Structures are given as structure tokens and as C-alpha cells.
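FAQ

Q: What does a record look like?
A: Structure on top, sequence underneath. For example:
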């Protein structure tokens, strides 16, 4: 197997992982959208926890795996910063706004590292707002081939 073929196979696997994650995120998004944030039951909190975890996971797979792999063979080197990757993704119409995705990465960090200073309702509203953008980017990134 050539280096190019190996890179292509790794990208395909990452894209498959991204789409599996996006499917689960979309299911959680639909459930979470129906929850009244001001009056959450214990079951609702579990749904919202799964939702935020899936959001963080999908964001990671998109940015840290798929975008990095997609552009490693292009103009962007493997060691490029997240900011550079997002700017490149915006330039190539995979995402609408690098700034919005940087905000999404900050939100992902708050979720993953549990150091959010936001109140719970604001955190969930922000994740609900960003999710369609993340799902759209995941769909676009999953169909690109080298």
C-alpha cells in the first residue's frame, strides 16, 4: 500500500467515525430541543449530558481528525494550529465561519473539562445553537475525498 492509499484509508475511517458521531448527536439534539431547560427532570439532565458529550466528541472528530487529515496533504501541514485549520476550512466552504467554530471549540473545552462559568441553561442553549452548524460541517467533511 502506498503512502497516499494509506492516508486515504485513514481519512475514510475518520469520516465514518465522524458520521456515526454526527448521527448520535443529531438524535440527542432532537431530544434535547424538546426539553424545558427551566424545569429539568433527572431524566432530562441525563439526556442533556449525553447531548453535550456527543457535541464535544463530534467537534473533536471533525476538527482534530478529519480536518487535519483532509488538509495534511493540501496547503496545511500536520502541525498546524486549530485556528489555521478552521481558517482553511472556511476558505474551502466546509464551515461558514472560522470565528464561530473557534467559539464552538471554546464551548467544547468548557464541556470536556467541566470548567464552564456559564449557567447551565446558557451552556445548553449555546450547544443547541451551534449543533446545526456542526452537523452541516460534518456532512460536508464526510464526503470529501483525497
Amino acid at each position: 500500500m502506498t503512502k497516499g492509499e494509506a492516508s486515504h484509508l485513514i481519512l475514510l475511517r475518520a469520516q465514518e467515525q465522524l458520521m456515526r458521531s454526527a448521527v448520535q448527536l443529531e438524535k440527542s439534539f432532537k431530544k434535547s430541543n424538546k426539553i424545558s431547560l427551566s424545569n429539568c427532570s433527572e431524566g432530562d439532565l441525563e439526556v442533556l449530558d449525553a447531548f453535550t458529550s456527543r457535541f464535544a466528541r463530534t467537534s473533536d472528530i471533525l476538527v482534530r481528525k478529519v480536518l487535519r487529515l483532509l488538509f495534511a496533504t493540501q496547503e496545511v501541514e500536520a502541525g498546524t494550529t486549530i485556528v489555521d485549520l478552521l481558517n482553511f476550512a472556511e476558505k474551502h466552504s466546509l464551515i461558514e465561519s472560522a470565528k464561530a467554530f473557534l467559539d464552538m471549540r471554546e464551548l467544547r473545552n468548557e464541556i470536556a473539562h467541566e470548567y464552564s462559568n456559564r449557567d447551565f441553561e446558557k451552556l445548553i442553549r449555546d450547544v443547541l445553537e451551534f449543533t446545526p452548524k456542526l452537523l452541516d460541517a460534518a456532512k460536508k467533511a464526510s464526503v470529501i475525498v483525497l
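Q: Is there anything notable about this one?
A: The two ends are 16 Å apart (CA to CA).
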